[in-house]
Amino acid sequence: MSIKRQHARTDSSNLAASSTPPPPPRQPLPVDLLLEIAARAEVVTVLHCSATSKPLRRDILDPAFARRHLTVPHAAAHGGFDPSLLLGFSYWLDAGYTSSGVASAHVVEIPPSPRPRVGIHPSTTSHLASLEPLAARDGLLVLRHASSRDMLGAVLCVFDTLIGEVTCLPPVGVRVFYPPALLAVGGDRSFELLVADGGLRCQTFSFSPTNGQWWSPVRSVGGPPGLKPPRGHAVVLGRTVHWLCVRRSLLPMPFLVNRYVLAVDVDAALPVDLRDSSGLLLAAVGGRLSLLAVDERLEVSVWTLTATTPAAAWSRDLVIRTLEMERQAGRLHSPLRMQGFGERSGAVVLKTSDGKLIRLDLGTKRGDHAARGGDKSVQHVCLHEIDLASLLQEEKEPLNMKAWSSQLNELERAMTA
């Protein structure tokens, strides 16, 4: 009897279990989340993830993921480091330290590893044989042609060791003295590079697959004199670049060596480079503090100081190349000196090296030579302007320019008497 009741209870429990709907199937994790997890894992784990599905494998094989894997912080199993992230290292083998007849060369070393890892592109060694390595970050390698080592306008290029592509840079505007610094590297192969000469005249190069490439104007930071070329590479923290520098004392102990950590805030430097302040003019444009600048190419630019976080920065709002075209045509020569600016009219007065005056209109971007000039003693140029309300008032009573000029002449004679 008890056995029958037990069977009955068992049958009823099975019936209840069969009437319960099965749990819903588990939803797969989004691909973006899987890639974020894989980016923080070791290389072996990444390889296992790539074997789970073809779409995930395709995303992992994308160069953007490889660069992402290089940049994210990993677990602290090795003190926060992941040895599998070392792809290799390269150096310049100078002929002066080798046997006779061996040319200087760029050598790429790939250390052995017991585990699989992301590899350097096979074309790395052949492409870089005659180029000096200068800096590296996140799979990018900055190189220089050895023949342009001490030249103004050195030939630099950036090599992507993951996909084997080379970006050739236009000639540099300074002599490269400090080791270049890769300020930023993006997952789409975009990057920003800083170069500087011995006087800390800096220039940045920006590259983007979508927006193109360009050099910024040369900016003068002004560093301590007498520093020796730094050994080692630049250290980039945020937007600040650090170099370890050495300077020898002359007196009283000529053999005393002082070491400095030179830090340059990239965004705090003046917007353009000039050997003196004659090419700069402080002004107010649209109610904001601005700098007018003319460089050695006779390119005139307007820079505005904008309040940003955490510090104020200079932004270039306007560039005029009218005078640069005259220079290329041989009708004008540098240097030019800023003499005056009209905050209302936008007129800029510049003086050439032989004393001629040029008026440049920021609104129309057109320039013309003043009727007078050729006197190198021209100083204290002032622009006489009128505001809109007064101008409307003067339309009723036209200004008598002849009488005004006569009054100025009388005042000048009285002051010189």
Automatic annotation (TrEMBL):
Region (Disordered) location: 1-30
Domain DUF7595: from-to ranges: 120-394
Pfam families linked to this entry: DUF7595
Protein name: DUF7595 domain-containing protein
Source organism per UniProt: Panicum miliaceum (Proso millet)
